[in-house]
Structure formats: structure tokens, C-alpha cells
């Protein structure tokens, strides 16, 4: 057993230690020793696995359930080592228990699909819980900190499970009636009020069991996947025994970031990969917290990233932006803030700004970087929403980096999903040169790394782009044109319905202000969301809820965009859903007026 560790959180506002103190003990996996320790220490949360010989029957699991329930501990049991993707799996005591009895409210099962003979590095994990508050909070937390699991990975394991289930003989064993766990549970620890507050206001995915809602509130593309991208993905799964050089993405990424942004790199530059940029950003937030830094967001930044930083209890400062300048970050506004901040970390979304869809020119970003260099600020340059500019050649920052000596201060964050409109295919990367920061980032566990098939397909696609392969560039060009046309149509529809629109120059989203709707009364006899009666006076705080209840259309409100009064709409929907979304905007106007 390892020594006791204490983690003391810092209050982001007062810079003093907060009341949150987390004491962690690395405990034994053998159940009898674990149970003895639980009885003596009475922990609030137990996270454990099981020894191989104990996983065969349900006895050890039931003892853990009874012991943790008696003292009011939450139990998270990891069974990844005992879940085999095989036509003849070993006996599993946890599944035997679940087949006959419902899972108590204080317990949850964690499982990573690790043990398979095809792609051992393609990991998808899931949690089993029968307590609604737990699985809702956990799903929101994962969405906020890690992003959604790539559809291609979900589909892969779905195929494997389907094929393995085909080995079963139909109706050989009748399904048993599951008993209810009726034992009373004493009061136990819940999610902290600060965490619940962030999750409630983060505007994450809205539950849609009937799949009837229209989503203009997600940073995903639902446009058809271009054929060259489909071919690269298919080839990556069809290939076996790939050489390391075929999955080494670094050389291709090095050329890509130099061509697109003039971002310099050398042999000392580190390339870090993940399933999506979101998880890499959150590791940078942890680095900022560990360094005692302050994360500076311009007003009008990605709402999910801001919420994630709040969830992780980072010290956050807002940099004011102005409507006259399209809510872009300026050198003067940045300088005024950096003069008052210790150890600043500045977040910049560019060239394309999420959520406005505007673009930082080469001159604008150089002036911003100049201010950062003057105050010794670290910079998180987020390019993951760029690459879909309607008429823009890119940045050339090489001279600026040389003049300002920024190599060690700037981290380049990026992803390929939106750049290539790859749908269910996701890949995130982080480029950094500061060895101390690299070591610190690697010290944080839990980074979900892309498997070899994703890296193979990524290298293939970057190679096509570097060679200016006509079929890939033409396909992406056509979809950029579709996005540009949709942005114009959405702008016309919104303006015709009383919205003030900030016209985008790139990307999949735009922002608009419902000027004509503020203070109007909306009355619904039959709400779209839950068939209830709904009446409200429209304001910034409830415009999202009002549109959802009236039409079934999901958008982001000003609390997500960080721009007072402005909501966010995305346009990369399927053709039919985009048309329905336009109809919903008109329908909402007709209901209110």
C-alpha cells in the first residue's frame, strides 16, 4: 500500500487554499484486505479492481457492495482486466450478479475494452450505473473534459460485439428476472456544488431519447464524408502489421503546421496526440493550474473550453472584446489585462475564431503575440476550429516567432476532424517546445491516445494534402462552398426574423442577437420538450430554453458564447436537418409575434 497523498485545491478568486482537500490512498486489490481497510478508514469514495481469482464468482463483489453501502461509500469497480472480447469468455462474477440483481445506487462498474486480439490499442470504455444522477453527471463530465468517443471506434466495437453475440444459441437460456436491490443506503458523498453548477450551465448535449431534436449547438460536421477520407479510413482498418513509419504522424504534421500557419518546429519540438483536441486542452489547463497561472479568455471563446477550465477550478480572467471589432481580441485590450495578471496563459482561437466564425489576419495575430511576448505570457493557439475558411490563405508566423523568441511560450493545439469534415473520424494534436511543460503534461495520467489505424489514416490524409491531391482538395473545397452558402442562408433567415447577425468568414458556426425578442412573452400550451405548458418572458438567460420548447431546435445562448446577448448557431447539419432548422427559426418568430 502506498503512502497517503493529499491534494489541496486553491481558490481561484482569493488565491488561497480552498476547503476542498482530497486525501488519496492507493489500496490493495484483494477484496478481503480492501474490505478491512474500508471498515477502518470509512472513505467517501472507493475506486478499485479485483484479483483474477475473485472475479470468477460474484461473492467478492457482493461483499464490496455490502461493506461500502453500510458506511456510505460510493464504489467504482474497474473490471477491464476481466472482460474478454471472445466467443468463449471466462466466467465473470460481476455480470452474473447483474444478470439477476439490479446495481445498487451507490455503485458503478467501469470497463475498458482492452482484451481483444485485433486492435489492442483501440480502446473504448463504458460505465454501468442504474442511478440516474450518477450516469447523467458522469456523461456530462466526460463530454466536457474528453469529448465524445469517435463514432468509428464505437462502430468498430459494435461490430465485434454483434459478431460475438452471434455465437450464442438462441433461447438456450431464458433471461432471468432481475431482482431489485432493496437494501437501504446511508447518506453518501455527491458531486460538489461547484461541479454541479458548472455542468448545469455548460450547455452540453440535451438528452434526446427519441432522436427528434435538431442540433445547431455542437462542433461537429454531419455533412457527407468525402470519398478520399472514407478510402483512407477503410484502408487503415484493412491493413495489418503496419510498420512504425506508416503510423508516424510527426513528419507530416510538421509540414502541415508550417504550410498552414508558418509555425516553426525542430528536433526539440514535441508532438502529443489524443483522440480529440478537447482532452489535450484540459491537460494544458492542469499545467496552468500546477504552475500557478491565470487562464485568460477573450470574451467570445469556445464555451465548452471555458466551462472545462471552470470545472477544473482554474483561475480565469475575461479579456473584454468589442462589438464594433467583431468581438476580436485586440493588442490594447490584451495589454490592459496582462498588466494586472500574474503568470498569464492566453487562449486564442485562430485563424478561425470559435464561435463567431471571423478570422484573425496575419497582422492581427502578430500584434497579439507581440503583447504576449512583452509580458512573458504563455499562449495556447487553438487551430482546431480552423481550416474551413471561405477565402483565406493562412498565416505565416515564422518571422514573428523568430523576432519575438516565442518558441518556448506558444503551444499549438489542433485537430483534423473539422478541417477535413471527417465526421466520425477524430484526431487531436498538441505541438510544444518547452521541455519542462512537456514533462509536466506527460505527468498527468488519463490521456486517451489515438490507435494505430487513426494515425495511419491521418498520415495518409496529410500526405494527400501536402501533395495537393486534387480529389481530396476538390471535395473539401466543395464542402467549404456548401458551408459558405448555408451561412448566407442562415443569416438571411435570422435577419428576416428579427435577429442581428455577425456574418462569419469561415467555419461551421455564427453568432446572432435576438434583439426583437427580448422582453417578449412566449406562451406554449404544449411544449416540444416535455408536452407541458410553458410561459416565459424572453431574456438572455432563457432564450435557448424557449426555442427548444417551442420548436425542438437546440442552439447555444450567450452564457456559452461569452458575448452578452449573442447566441451561437452551427450549420454543418445534414441537408434535411438544415432545412428543418431554418423552418424552426421562422416558426419561433411566428409563435412569439
Brief summary of the model shown:
With 593 residues, the protein is an alpha/beta fold.
Compile the SSE list and pairings.
Blueprint: E1 5-10, E2 17-24, H1 31-41, E3 45-48, H2 59-71, E4 74-78, H3 93-100, E5 107-112, E6 125-128, H4 132-145, H5 151-165, H6 193-201, E7 214-215, H7 227-238, H8 250-261, E8 270-274, H9 277-291, E9 294-298, H10 303-311, E10 315-319, H11 331-338, E11 344-349, H12 362-374, E12 378-382, H13 398-404, E13 410-415, E14 428-432, H14 435-442, H15 452-466, H16 470-496, E15 500-502, E16 509-513, E17 521-524, E18 534-537, H17 543-551, E19 553-554, H18 558-561, E20 567-570, H19 575-592
N-C termini distance:
67 Å
Total strands: 20
* Helix-strand makeup class: alpha/beta
Number of DSSP helical runs: 19
Description:
This protein is α/β, with parallel strands linked by helices and 593 residues long. It is 38% helix and 16% strand. It has helices spanning 31-41, 59-71, 93-100, 132-145, 151-165, 193-201, 227-238, 250-261, 277-291, 303-311, 331-338, 362-374, 398-404, 435-442, 452-466, 470-496, 543-551, 558-561, 575-592, and strands at 5-10, 17-24, 45-48, 74-78, 107-112, 125-128, 214-215, 270-274, 294-298, 315-319, 344-349, 378-382, 410-415, 428-432, 500-502, 509-513, 521-524, 534-537, 553-554, 567-570. It has a 7-stranded mixed beta sheet, sandwiched between helices. Strands 3-4-5-6 form a 4-stranded mixed beta sheet, covered by helices on one side. A hairpin with a 6-residue loop joins strand 1 (5-10) and strand 2 (17-24). Helix 1 packs parallel to helix 2 (59-71), helix 7 crosses helix 15 (452-466) and helix 11 runs parallel beside helix 12 (362-374). The longest helix has 27 residues, at 470-496. It starts with a strand and ends with a helix. Mean pLDDT is 84; it is low at 1-17.
